[in-house]
Amino acid sequence: MRAGFYPGRQSKVCSRYYNRYDPIMSEKNKILVEAVPQFIEAQSMPEQGRYVFAYTITITNVGAVPAKLLSRHWLITDSNGKVQEVRGDGVIGEQPYLKPGEFFRYTSGAMIETPVGTMQGQYLLRSDDGDNFSAAIPKFTLSIPRTLH
Length: 149
Hints:
149 residues; single chain; mainly beta; four-stranded antiparallel beta sheet; elongated
């Protein structure tokens, strides 16, 4: 899926993996993060401990103030407990700016050494009124088909 900027369109909610924004968070800065993972069998080599996953993230501004995504922080954990930490500016080379009601969707990937793992993290954003705030990326499972119920 190509990254995009879709003003005013509704995003598809994946009920298994999404962040119900923190009720303590101010009403003006609310970001909803949804994640949909997918196993990429064609790029995986299980016999060599290489399991490749794609994940599609939808970031929706459900607050009252426009905000720009500044950076990301991911923790990717395989079932052996090996943790990969990823930090960087923006996502897929972009720092999307979201007005209230707008969303940004992108697809990226991760590789782990086991057939099951998890990802979680956070985005750092800056609202138009100068407040920096974070949005949690809820923990979601990376799993080859027919491994988990």
